[in-house]
Design a protein that fits this description.
The protein is mainly α. The protein has five helices and no strands. Helix content is about 85%, strand content about 0%.
Length: about 90
Amino acid sequence: MFLSVIENTFLLLLTLSIFVLRNPLKTLQNISNSPFLIFCLSFSVFLAFAIGPTTSNFGALVRFKIPLIPFFCFLLLTLYYRTNIKS
């Protein structure tokens, strides 16, 4: 469980640094300009909200979130790259 905590903390800090510390309006504009980023965001959010409330076991939750992690990481890293290039 400790490795899961480290992973989730890293993803939370990366998400906050991209969506909050940078210009949130430009971040949303970058997402809306790319159909694949829209898919990554909608897939990740839908799957997270479908899995989170329905799973009571934390170990199963860690396994069930595996399909959304690559899409969410791709979204975050693409946004990070795009905001660094344009600034």
